[in-house]
Specification:
176 residues, mainly alpha, 62% helix
């Protein structure tokens, strides 16, 4: 009973942790930094990594800046699909549940920003990489885990078909 419940709740527990961390970090950044203001604990670190508060009206990592409303709808649809799929997974499938939980938490974290503030607050600035937040990172990690799972399943399936003995072929000329 406990294992079955844990199977169904792992996605939601992980999503809740991601949403909490995402919203707390965004709140701290909004409370302590003005828009476009940056902070770094060490001056030498600032060119490489810093906290830089920006508003993102587009998708993850600042892509498609004019699609805010579209991304609100997409986030809702993706969240519903993940919720549906999470209940369809057979027992086990822990890594799939981790991937879904990360993606769900990230989608809802950014959706909360869109619904409450309009744009999404991004603040992690590393080198010349696009500025992102906890939700963006969570979605990216979830997608990477999902990609690794799909690749490993495809490789396992290919290995299984290559190692299977060839099907016996009957000679039709002998059967006549």
């Amino acid at each position: 009973m406990f294992k079955k419940t844990l199977n169904h709740t792992l996605v939601f527990l992980l999503a809740a942790v991601v949403i909490f961390l995402d919203q707390v970090t965004k709140h701290l950044v909004r409370a302590r930094l003005a828009l476009n203001e940056s902070w770094s604990p060490f001056a030498w670190l600032a060119p490489y990594a810093r906290i830089l508060r920006i508003n993102n009206t587009g998708a993850a990592f600042g892509m498609f800046k004019t699609g805010g409303s579209l991304f609100t709808v997409i986030a809702i649809i993706v969240s519903l699909v993940i919720l549906y799929y999470a209940f369809q997974l057979p027992a086990g499938q822990w890594w799939m549940r981790v991937a879904l939980g990360l993606q769900l938490g990230g989608a809802i974290g950014n959706l909360i920003d869109r619904l409450l503030f309009g744009p999404v607050t991004d603040f992690v600035s590393v080198g010349t990489f696009a500025i992102f937040n906890v939700a963006d990172a969570s979605i990216s990690i979830g997608v990477a885990v999902l990609a690794v799972l799909m690749l490993s399943e495809a490789l396992a399936e290919r290995k299984k078909t290559q190692s299977a003995p060839p099907a016996e072929q009957t000679d039709l000329s002998e059967a006549s």
